[in-house]
C-alpha cells in the first residue's frame, strides 16, 4: 500500500481564473502559469503527465474548472475539486495573508498534501447540461447570468 503520510508523493495545486491557470507542484516548488485556453490546458496536462502527481487540487470556480478537470481526469490523473472556503480557511491556518494566484496555487498544493481531499467522480456531459428550466424566475435569472459565457443561444451548454 502506498505511503499516505503527509509529504510522500507529488501534490499539485491549480488556481483557475478566467484568463490564467497557475500551477504549483510540491515538493519541488515548480510553478507554471499559462493562459486559460486550449493551448494552456494542453500544456498543463502534458506537464502533469510527466510529474505523475499523487493528487491535483483546484477550487470550484463557478464552472471555470470543468474543462481542465475533465481533461486531467481523462488522462487518468487524480483530481479533487474543493470548496473555496476550505482553501481560504487552510491558508488562514498556515498564516498566509498575502493573496495572489501563485500563492493560491501553493496553498492548494499544500492542502492536497496535508488534507488529501477525496476524489469525486466528475459529472458526465449529460450531468453538466443546463436546460434553463428551473422553478422561479429569480433562480433562472441568476443561473443564466452565471452561466452566460458557457451557454449557447438555446440556453444549453453541453
CATH superfamily of the largest domain: ATPase, nucleotide binding domain
CATH topology of the largest domain: Nucleotidyltransferase, domain 5
Q: How many domains is the backbone divided into?
A: 2
Strand content: 15-25%
Instruction: Report the average pLDDT across residues.
Output: 82
Structural class: alpha/beta
Element layout with pairings:
Elements: E1 11-16, E2 20-26, E3 30-35, H1 38-51, E4 55-59, H2 66-74, E5 79-82, H3 84-94, H4 101-115, H5 125-128, H6 137-147
Helix pairs in contact: 1-2
Would you mind describing this structure in some detail?
A hairpin with a 3-residue loop joins strand 1 (11-16) and strand 2. This protein has helices at residues 38-51, 66-74, 84-94, 101-115, 125-128, 137-147, and strands at 11-16, 20-26, 30-35, 55-59, 79-82. It has two domains: 11-115, 2-Layer Sandwich (Nucleotidyltransferase, domain 5), CATH 3.30.420; 124-158, no CATH class. The chain is built from six helices and five strands; from the N terminus they run E-E-E-H-E-H-E-H-H-H-H. Helix content is 41%, strand content 18%. The relative contact order is 0.16. The protein is α/β, with parallel strands linked by helices. Helix 1 packs across helix 2. The chain has a five-stranded mixed β-sheet with strand order 3-2-1-4-5. Mean pLDDT is 82; it is low at 130-135.
